[in-house]
């Protein structure tokens, strides 16, 4: 299957992408991984991206599209893929369509993870990260540490990232509504969108997603 995963910040796209990719036996291709790989490998696109990022600027669409196309050209993506974070706007969506058409293939579906805005703010603003290891993540409501402010795993200090405050989260949501949400309407015109609720346990959302993706088969 060839799938695009969309949804607002805090919808759990990364978590669901990993489970869905495993269940469907397709590679999970995330924008973050594309940037990290290209920058660490010193590719031409990676150097271009880093120059914009170091200057505090957004990476141009053309650079992101180039990275995505290079990744889709790799052998493991020949029979399917799950894109997470790309395309992020209609320009990128049209570029992806053109790339796929040039290879005689098309998307099978666009999975839209739906979460109420208040829940997004609660999920992200309640997140606490260990200063010693950013992989140790807790939540003040959903997964609180045994001792407030202390990492259960290593005893490090837990803190709230500067971009996880409620105001910053709402700003990110505004950017999502303005830039990324329009691709849902774009794909709806192609009858590709399936929308599911991303509320509930991770396994429940994964089951919901798998059922939605296989509904038309």
Automatic annotation (TrEMBL):
Keyword ATP-binding listed? The answer is yes
Give the UniProt subcellular location, in the record's own words. Cytoplasm
**What is its pathway?**
Purine metabolism; AMP biosynthesis via salvage pathway; AMP from ADP: step 1/1
Q: Which SUPFAM superfamilies match?
A: P-loop containing nucleoside triphosphate hydrolases (SSF52540)
Task: Please tell me where ATP binds in this chain.
Answer: 10-15, 127, 137-138, 200
Report the superkingdom from the record.
Answer: Bacteria
> Residues of the signal sequence?
none
Matches recorded under Pfam families: ADK, ADK_lid
The residues the record assigns to binding AMP are 31, 36, 57-59, 85-88, 92, 161, 172
Q: Any idea of its EC number?
A: 2.7.4.3
Q: Name one GO molecular function term.
A: AMP kinase activity
Q: Where is this region: NMP?
A: 30-59
Q: Start and end of every Adenylate kinase active site lid domain? A: 127-163
NCBIfam families noted in UniProt = adk, PRK00279.1-2, PRK00279.1-3, PRK14527.1
**Annotated family:** Belongs to the adenylate kinase family.
Q: What is known of its domains?
A: Consists of three domains, a large central CORE domain and two small peripheral domains, NMPbind and LID, which undergo movements during catalysis. The LID domain closes over the site of phosphoryl transfer upon ATP binding. Assembling and dissambling the active center during each catalytic cycle provides an effective means to prevent ATP hydrolysis.
What the protein does comes down to:
Catalyzes the reversible transfer of the terminal phosphate group between ATP and AMP. Plays an important role in cellular energy homeostasis and in adenine nucleotide metabolism.
Q: Supply the name of the protein.
A: Adenylate kinase
Q: What species is this protein from?
A: Actinacidiphila acidipaludis
């Amino acid at each position: 299957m060839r799938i695009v995963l969309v949804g607002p910040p805090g919808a759990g796209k990364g978590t669901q992408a990993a489970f869905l990719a495993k269940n469907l036996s397709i590679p999970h291709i995330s924008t973050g991984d594309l940037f990290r790989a290209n920058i660490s490998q010193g590719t031409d696109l990676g150097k271009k991206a880093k120059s914009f990022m170091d200057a505090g600027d957004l990476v141009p669409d053309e650079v992101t599209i180039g990275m995505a196309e290079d990744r889709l050209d790799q052998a493991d993506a020949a029979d399917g893929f799950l894109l997470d974070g790309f395309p992020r706007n209609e320009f990128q969506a049209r570029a992806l369509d053109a790339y796929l058409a040039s290879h005689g293939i098309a998307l099978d579906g666009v999975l839209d993870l739906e979460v109420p805005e208040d829940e997004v703010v609660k999920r992200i603003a309640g997140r606490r990260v260990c200063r010693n290891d950013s992989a140790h993540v807790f939540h003040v409501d959903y997964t609180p540490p045994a001792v407030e402010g202390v990492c259960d795993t290593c005893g490090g200090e837990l803190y709230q990232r500067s971009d996880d405050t409620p105001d910053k989260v709402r700003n990110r949501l505004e950017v999502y509504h303005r830039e990324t949400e329009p691709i849902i309407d774009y794909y709806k015109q192609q009858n590709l969108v399936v929308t599911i609720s991303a509320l509930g346990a991770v396994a429940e959302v994964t089951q919901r997603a798998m059922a939605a993706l296989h509904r038309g088969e």
